[in-house]
Design brief:
The complex is a heterodimer of chains A (401) and B (144). In chain A, 37% of the residues lie in helices and 18% in strands. In chain A, the strands form 2 sheets. Chain A has a 9-stranded mixed sheet with strand order 3-2-4-7-1-8-11-10-9, sandwiched between helices. Chain A has a two-stranded antiparallel sheet with strand order 5-6. In chain A, helix 4 packs across helix 14 and helix 11 crosses helix 12. Chain A is globular. Chain A starts with 9 loop residues before the first strand and ends with a strand. Chain B is mainly beta. Helix content of chain B is 0%, strand content 43%. Chain B has no helices and 9 strands. In chain B, the strands form 2 sheets. A 5-stranded mixed β-barrel of chain B has the order 5-6-7-9-8. In chain B, strands 3-2-4 form a 3-stranded antiparallel sheet, with no helix packed on it. The termini of chain B are far apart. The mean pLDDT of chain B is 93. The chains are: A alpha/beta (401), B mainly beta (144).
């Protein structure tokens, strides 16, 4: 989509989730439970669905059984057309984008998007089948660079450049833990103090255990439709998807990113005006024809508590280097100027990779409908989710009421 | 004469990424772009479609961009010390190449003394040892 071109909107007719946890059951169960929730919320029957998109992961056998079809089979074959997206943490947004494109192109009226995961304990690791040509394999083999290693590089950089402290990072966890206390779908419902966070074991210095998101089981689903279809179902004022950004980086990408060994060189070509994460948000704002000042609520990917501060700047809630002030002043808590992660974020959910970007959208829809009981951002009408998938997958969705 | 003891052989932990004393990148003969890890097939500059990529040694010194001390062992295929010892991953800014390159901190260096902006230089050091010998890789050592 060209900058400045406002895309057509689609309706979110229904949302649903299977609670996050460490249930240890087949991921298909979570996906089907979430799908049935979303269909029931939408008042749409499975046999009326004109397209199914699945978010897939590298785990769970034959790459998450190539998810879209597995969910369709579990719900009962109907002959519905299918697509499956694998974009690491961005898989859910990519699946939503595919469904949106089908609807905007007039190829279907109503679509179901599902993502679910069952995760192993501990660090996410490359698959054993990989060989030395896999960059994900190489970074573990040659560096021992886990995901938190990369988050820690950014965190230490914030400390050196902007004077961020361990307490600032802890405040993010404290805020999100409080937000998630009443969220029925959250895995961790426990309040923490700054001291609790700072006493938790050091994992990747300067990040401690309670500042790094866990891996979780969970499932999320949305039912999307054309605006006309929504109207035909008597839904006059649905929450609408105004933007989906799935942009890749622009060369030279000068921020070191998981699972890379190096940045691009900026010696011969000047770096782009926006960093990659800034560009993910900018593309979403462009599509929706709005800016950061229009936001009422945001769900950002707090893979680490420190990374949430980076996102504040990337989505334009403040200038670079000012995110610490936002968290210290309470601006991003519910009741503050711009609440971030009212769901509790990854701090309360952990990550169920192919479901997570869909779960972000579910939360925003509940917020915009005024149905986020116990964590409601009053009067929210515009929300943004943002996230970044391994290997260069942008993921941002803007919803409006 | 007895055969050499296992572990005496020095094996690059990955082929073609470093020499005895430098990281090996590639440079595009058409646009001059530099790549690490070495990109030997296609130039990744979107304005250039060249396949003329030649090996080039990268700067041996750079400045610490950031670093992280890992207090838990990474999962396989990482091979750590037994018993486990914390290890540090350093991101180093190379000024001539204008790029940031990761590497482990050299053995025996206390990360407590490390700061962003410190000058470091490359060292080819043991990464792990197995029945085939000692696998070596590039690491970063502070310039004293």
């Amino acid at each position: 989509v060209e900058a400045g071109f406002v895309t057509g909107e689609i309706a979110v007719l229904g949302v649903g989730m299977h609670p996050w946890g460490k249930w240890g059951r087949p991921f298909v169960e979570y996906g089907v439970a979430a799908a049935q929730d979303a269909l029931s919320d939408a008042g749409v029957g499975w046999r009326d669905i004109g397209f199914i998109a699945g978010g897939e992961t590298i785990r769970n056998g034959y790459a998450g059984f190539v998810a879209g079809a597995t969910f369709a089979q579990a719900l009962g074959w109907t002959g519905v057309p299918v697509a499956t997206a694998y974009a690491a943490c961005a898989a859910g947004a990519t699946a939503i984008d595919i469904a949106r494109a089908r609807i905007l192109a007039g190829l279907c009226d109503v679509a179901l998007v599902v993502g679910a995961d069952t995760t192993p304990k501990g660090f996410l690791a490359p698959t054993w089948a990989s060989d030395e040509s896999d960059p994900d394999y190489r970074r573990f083999r040659l560096l021992g660079a886990t995901n938190p290693t990369y988050f820690a590089l950014y965190a230490r950089r914030r400390m050196a450049l902007y004077g961020a402290t361990e307490e600032d990072f802890a405040l993010v966890k404290v805020k999100n833990a409080k937000h998630g206390l009443n969220n029925p779908n959250a895995r961790y419902k426990k309040e923490y103090t700054v001291a609790d966070v700072l006493e938790s074991p050091m994992v990747s210095d300067p990040l401690r255990l309670l500042q790094i998101c866990a891996t979780s089981d969970g499932g999320a689903a949305v039912v999307l439709s054309s605006m006309d279809y929504a109207k035909s179902r008597g839904v006059a004022d649905p929450v609408r998807v105004a933007a989906v950004s799935t942009v890749t980086p622009t060369y030279p990408n000068t921020v070191i990113e998981m699972p890379n060994f190096a940045t691009d060189s900026a010696a011969t070509v000047a770096p782009p005006e926006l960093t990659y994460r800034d560009a993910i948000a900018a593309a979403a704002y462009d599509q929706a024809g709005i800016g950061p000042d229009d936001l009422d609520v945001a769900e950002v990917y707090d893979l680490s508590s420190a990374l949430e501060l980076d996102w504040y700047e990337n989505i334009g809630l403040c200038k670079e280097g000012e995110a610490e002030k936002l968290i210290r002043d309470g601006d991003t808590q519910i009741g503050g100027r711009i609440p971030v992660n009212p769901s509790g974020g990854l701090a309360c959910f952990g990550e169920a990779v192919p479901a997570q970007a869909i779960a972000q959208v579910c939360e925003l829809v509940w917020q915009l409908r005024g149905e986020a009981e116990g964590r409601q951002v009053e009067g929210a009408t515009v929300g943004l989710s943002i996230n970044q998938g391994l290997f260069g997958h942008g993921s941002s969705v803007i919803v409006k009421k | 004469m007895a055969p050499p003891m296992s572990g005496d052989t020095r094996i690059p932990a990955i082929d073609g990424w470093f020499t005895d004393d430098a990281l090996l990148g590639t440079r595009c003969g058409a646009c001059g772009a530099t790549f690490f890890p070495p990109e030997r097939t296609f130039c990744r500059n979107p304005a250039c479609a060249s396949t003329d990529l030649a090996d080039v040694e990268l700067s041996k010194r750079g400045k610490v961009w950031s670093f992280s001390v890992n207090h838990y062992a990474a999962p396989p295929p990482y091979v750590g010390k037994e018993p486990f010892e914390p290890y540090t991953v350093v991101a180093v800014e190379l000024s001539q190449e204008q790029m940031v390159v990761l590497g482990q901190l050299a053995a025996g260096v206390d990360p407590a003394g490390l700061k962003i902006g410190d000058e470091v230089e490359i060292a080819i050091e043991p990464l792990f040892t197995d029945d085939d010998g000692t696998h070596v890789a590039w690491k970063w050592r502070p310039v004293s």
